[in-house]
Amino acid sequence: MVDTQRKLLLGNLACVHGAIYAGMRFFAGYPITPSTEVAEGCSRELPRIGGRFIQMEDEIGSIGAVVGASVSGVKAMTATSGPGYSLMVENIGYAYMTETPCVIINVQRGGPSTGLPTKGSQSDTMQARWGPHGDYTAIAVAPSTVGDTVTETIRAFNLAERFRTPVTILLDEVISHQREMISLPKPGEHQVVDRVKPTASPEEFEPFAHTAGGVSPMPAYGEGYRYVITGLTHDAMGFTTNRPDEIKLKLDKLRNKILNFKSEITKLRIEMMDDAEIAFVSYGSVSRAVLLAVALARKAGVKVGMIQLYTVWPFPDEELRDYLVGCHKVIVPELNMGQVVREVGRILPPDTEIHSLLRYDGEILTPMQLLEKLEEVM
Amino acid sequence: MTTAEKTKAAPRQRSDVILNYLRPKKKFPNVWCAGCGNGIVMSAIVRAIDKLALSKDEVAMVSGIGCSSRMPIYLDFNALHTTHGRALPFATGIKFAQPHMKVIVITGDGDALAIGGNHFIHACRRNIDITAILVNNYIYGMTGGQGSPTTPTAAFSTTTPYGNAEKHFDPCKLAEAAGASYVARATVYHAPQLEKAIMQAVDHRGFSLVEVISNCHTYFGRLNRLGDAVSMLKEYKEKSVTVARAKRMSPEELKDKHVIGTLYEDDKTEFCDEYQKIVDAQMGEK
Ligand SMILES: Cc1ncc(C[n+]2csc(CCOP(=O)(O)OP(=O)(O)O)c2C)c(N)n1
Ligand code: SF4
């Protein structure tokens, strides 16, 4: 039997498939290499399913329109690369503050500035955590294959809806422009999460109520709950406040609604860690080379394993520490000048050695380079 | 409400209309200086919406950042108080996602024309069915009186202490040239005309701009020795001419005058309607 769900798919189009599967019906974006095929794919697919695509005048407008669509009750996303993400950050901060679910895909390329439009990179990892000014907690996921990209995009939407927050997908040029044969998920194969709607009457409704789980039910504009959404610090009613107790409550809410439920957000891939003495900790496209390198090293009898972070933010401190407890040495390979290595270092016991393998010349890390590094630290 | 409004001694019935649209539970007073033109603009909007008999639920009021942009917080509609200059893209998202909604944007001259200038011309170009009410007080009110893209040449502000060396925008001409399909101007002295312009703008299918010339006596008035709110309103009365009268006047006579009324109107196709045709065609094909 021919599997009709099998498809040779470009990484960027995997985002489109995943997003539509998750219920995305609104896309606003601005073309930028290496993310453009996401916009092009959405412009083709969305009208066919009653969705909406708009090419905005810039990335600031794109994320603005995405937030506008989301408060209207429609799942929305945008896709960009470093220069565009940099333009978006003020309005991404607005989405954090107003607790508006949305998904931002950053197909990373080399930077800073216009940098290397056609070369892969992981140098925006910290930007996904700390992009907008102010205090908040960010969620970011990082796929490593085209297949992953479908499932991680679905997961990104689910997390955004579940926690009422923007979620960044950290893709990179390597995956976005790769074609892989994958099986598209069948309807019902993955859970699809929708934001919780209020049950209170409009008179009793508190738009930013402090609930037990920290997430307030969210009505759509037009549903009878005429409330205020503002980027100014606000109280449970959504009204601006200068009261120290209310300010603190709001900021605690932004953090706790995510950190108190980290186990629902963290996703790791664990390979050959049971008896591992040395571990690679990686994320994104680099993990593909790591997987091969670990398999080769195992054949040669080296007790090495790998942990791949599908969830990069919030950083999985506790889970990672648990897996790394038996290792003497940890290697963190990245396509940047060292971003996640510091996070890993922060959680390791003082007697565990940590090594960084960095590449930021526009090329990818090969399994050979990883094996060389492994040999060097052994 | 503001002093300027109280002095108008509005008939009882009018203030009832306004009360009905003020957000219940909102902690008042508002942030505006007594006598600020923003209060007059707000009441004109409310009366226009009331006369149009729109349901409050179908109105989304979106704003950027500035004194004028605080307005949606006070009114009982779906309110989105966004970031500086970006109200129009957010409004575009709401309108495009829910084309049946009436989307009204409240924006200042700095908000719409400086930081938000690019969004402004593109919203006009798309002719998306949004009404932008641009409260033009010729200055940045919220940040304390700096020059804006509408500050007249030679006028004073806290960043043009020796007189403005720059030229200024005419927001109405800009909107018309960029593709808006309804453009009107009023001043806060001309409250009934303002109300009518807002009614027509909201009723119009396509991008509509109502520029309201409004007093910031606190900064623009004080720095340019224009007196208090009342004297600024009087000046608007003296300096305004209707579109009909302006047609009979020479450019020389029109210098320093505010031409008020409907400046431009056409019936070109609207963006959401056109996109819906694409959706219908694509979904029909499946
Ligand atoms: C990105 C950004 N830059 C600057 C500011 C500071 N700011 C707040 S309001 C404002 C200008 C407001 O002037 P205008 O839009 O004319 O509105 P008004 O206050 O006069 O009604 C500025 C510069 C800001 N909030 N955000
Ligand atoms: S500063 Fe000017 S624009 Fe702002 S409220 Fe006062 S008078 Fe109005």
Describe the structure.
The complex is a heterodimer of chains A (378) and B (286). By secondary structure, chain A is of the alpha/beta class. Chain A contains 13 helices and 16 strands. In chain A, α1 (11-22) packs across α2 and α3 (59-71) runs parallel beside α4 (82-98). The longest helix of chain A is centred in the middle third of the chain and has 18 residues, at 146-163. The model of chain A has no long low-confidence stretch (mean pLDDT 97). By secondary structure, chain B is of the alpha/beta class. In chain B, 44% of the residues lie in helices and 16% in strands. Chain B has an 8-stranded mixed beta sheet, with helices on both faces. In chain B, β5, α9 and β6 (208-213) form a beta-alpha-beta unit. The longest helix of chain B has 16 residues, at 37-52. Mean pLDDT of chain B is 94; it is low at 1-12. The chains are: A alpha/beta (378), B alpha/beta (286). Chain A binds chain B through residues 26, 28, 47-52, 54, 56-58, 60-62, 64-74, 76, 90-91, 94, 220-224, 226-232, 237, 239-240, and chain B through 23, 25-27, 56-58, 60, 62, 72-73, 76-83, 86, 88-98, 100-101, 118-119, 122, 275, 278-279, 282-283, 285-286. β10 of chain A pairs parallel with β2 of chain B. The complex binds thiamine diphosphate (TPP) and iron/sulfur cluster (SF4). Thiamine diphosphate is lined by residues 65-68, 84, 108-111, 135, 137, 140-143, 148 of chain B.
